[in-house]
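Q: For a teaching handout, I want to show students what a protein-ligand complex looks like in token form. Below are the inputs, and the small molecule is calcium ion. Please produce the holo structure.
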Amino acid sequence: MTKNKSNSRNLVLFTLAILIIFILLFVVTQMTKKTDGSSTMKNKPDIASQPLMGNKDAKVTIVEFGDYKCPSCKAWGEQIFPKLQKDYVDTGKANFSYINTLFHGDESKLGALAGESIYAKNPDEFWNIHKAIFNAQPAVDHDSLWITPEKLLELAKTNAPKIDLKALEDDLKNQSFLSQVSLDEKLVKQFNVQKTPTIMVNDVMITNPFDYKTISAIIDKELGK
Ligand code: CA
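A: Here is the structure, written as tokens, with calcium ion included.
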């Protein structure tokens, strides 16, 4: 091999090495962006038949994939949701929707069936009963049986007086709104929801639902689009 040939081979190797370093840097930067609180999905969840709180024409929709039996969802509803409600929902900037996620078996399903029945028949009462069910979740020993038809009827009676209790009782017994619950389960699968609560802001999935600063920054960014 001549000296020239060896030099040009070294140059090629050097260029390749630089190129690889740049590619690696690019990949790492992209990954960092994605772990910075969010990842963008292909679309927003279709919430056409889901309960919606706030301005229906708002530019931003916040979706909670939640489970009445899940302690983190209760905590999220107490610690984070009131801030979102005050800053974005009450001001008309964003609206809020809730999708049932059944990660805790029969009790999750029963709570979801109650919510769907009430939403179908008395949509105005939905958010009252939604809050009441989370409030009723025991602070300790939430794994013990507490979502029962009796409990749900009692909560409806005290928190949502417009509800026809006999009809609700029958709906729970007959699983009348199972198709609505199944629709929610399809969304859970479609968005590959792995934990509750999972929060989405438009098509952006939030990594840490308790990081209010990041959620609010993402909402502001969506509002500015
Ligand atoms: Ca639903």
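A: Two things your students might notice: The first helix runs from residue 3 to 35. Strands lie at 38-40, 52-53, 60-66, 94-100, 198-201, 204-206.
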